[in-house]
Automatic annotation (TrEMBL):
Protein name: DUF2057 domain-containing protein
Organism superkingdom: Bacteria
Sorted UniProt keywords: Signal
Family indicated by similarity: Belongs to the UPF0319 family.
Organism: Shewanella vesiculosa
Alphabetical list of Pfam families matching this protein: DUF2057
Signal peptide: 1-19
Listed InterPro entries: UPF0319
Length: 226
């Protein structure tokens, strides 16, 4: 009897102990994970029961750096990541942001590394979720639904099995904007002025704090804008 109970306990423990997860760098926040809005940091629970274990995560990278004696906040564009996962831990690695130049470089072409629990590089597809106009109060579930209905490179079909051979990446990244324009490593760097960077960061910070506010504060903010 004790052996049966022990076996049942072991089976139950194994069922919950084995899971897929993604560890994120500090100051990284998800906005969407597998068809759901998300505001997780540090660790994301993945769903390995999805077709082919295909995961889709959208996140923003935040950093603070000193430039000319003043502190500056950086919030990246929303990055969409698609990869296959099994029941193990994965780790996302991002470069440090310590200057305006490194912030601009990351936004133009995010350098991302994805590894498994053994330290092996994992293939993934990377894109950006770009929205023009006001960034306050973005509905990421709706935006991602529209994104997935498009032919974007990191899209995941809701009712069909994704072919993992599409857009493979072997220890590298594929970056594009929402129109699925691929940016190759040899692509020319777009010059962005300091004023453009400042306003972009202001817009992202406004969106960040709007998402953190309660319903009353959000309503008051919208009223001021109108």
């Amino acid at each position: 009897m004790r052996s049966i109970i022990a076996l049942l306990c072991f089976s139950l423990f194994s069922q919950y102990a084995i899971a897929a997860s993604l560890h994120l760098p500090d100051r990284t926040e998800t906005v969407f994970v597998n068809n759901k809005a998300s505001h997780q940091q540090s660790k994301v629970v993945l769903d390995s029961t999805l077709p082919n274990g295909m995961q889709q995560i959208a996140f923003r990278y935040q950093a603070r750096y000193r430039d000319n004696g003043s502190q500056n906040d950086f919030i990246s564009d929303v990055i969409v990541l698609r990869f296959n996962a099994s029941e193990q831990d994965y780790r996302l690695t991002l470069p440090p942001i310590n200057s305006a130049a490194s912030a601009k470089k990351f936004n133009l072409k995010p350098a991302i590394t994805l590894t498994d629990s053994s330290g092996n590089k994992i293939a993934f597809t990377q894109d950006k979720l770009i929205k023009s106009g006001l960034q306050i109060g973005r509905d990421f579930v709706q935006e991602m639904a529209q994104y997935n209905a498009s032919a974007a490179i990191a899209a995941v079909a809701s009712s069909t099995v994704i072919n993992p051979s599409l857009n493979p990446v072997s220890g590298a990244t594929i970056a594009s904007d929402h129109s699925s324009q691929v940016i190759s490593p040899s692509a020319d760097v777009i010059e962005v002025t300091a004023e453009d960077i400042t306003q972009a960061e202001v817009m992202r910070m406004l969106d960040y704090w709007y998402q953190k506010a309660n319903n009353q504060t959000q309503a008051e903010f919208k009223a001021k804008i109108n």
